[in-house]
Known about the structure:
Order of helices and strands: HHEHEHHEHHHHHHEHHH
Strand content: under 5%
Shape: globular
Helix content: 55-70%
Oligomer: single chain
Amino acid sequence: xxxxxxxxxxxxxxxxxxxxxxxxxxxxxxxxxxxxxxxxxxxxxxxxxxxxxxxxxxxxxxxxxxxxxxxxxxxxxxxxxxxxxxxxxxxxxxxxxxxxxxxxxxxxxxxxxxxxxxxxxxxxxxxxxxxxxxxxxxxxxxxxxxxxxxxxxxxxxxxxxxxxxxxxxxxxxxxxxxxxxxxxxxxxxxxxxxxxxxxxxxxxxxxxxxxxxxxxxxxxxxxxxxxxxxxxxxxxxxxxxxxxxxxxxxxxxxxxxxxxxxxxxxxxxxxxxxxxxx
Length: 278
């Protein structure tokens, strides 16, 4: 009996220890979320930029318009460091030869298949370079170079990027993508390989006309990143919008700070706040 009592006591202590550890982890998780949450000052600063018409609420449309502006601003900022790295003659601008040489350096040492892919990529990159060269002088200046590496900020460059993706994935050549073409399910996957529920749902959201295929216009939402940004902002609105009008006040955003911190929207908000030094 004494041994049994001791064993039961030891088991009880062990269970209590495990529960105590779980409680500590929960507290730590809450603390992490609190530390990552946007501050009231940051939210107020971003809200003032979201609310374009100054009516006291921010809609998804307003936030997406701001997101597009931010993509351009961040691309221009990042272009400075890109030029410094690959502008070999240090003239402050990028030539096509410099860009293609940089691509070749990245692929140096690759096998025959990788070299073939490099040649294909050079064709696409040349077309993107020419589309980004808005003044047609044969060079990309700081204001232009962002479009080469961030196609979403320039409609012409984005169209070329989308077409390149379509050509790569479109195995039957019908200029549209089936779900498996889009998710690049190769023959090696076998007939039994299935799409995940998340992949199916994402495809259906992209397939605006509901024909079961993605055309170039529908693929553009994915390639530009707007699909993911809009999804994150819709989730933000779902969290913050308590009266169901698909618009959020500053107070609603502030009240939902911790919930927002645990969502994908947080990554975008942090990036925008850091860019504006909020």
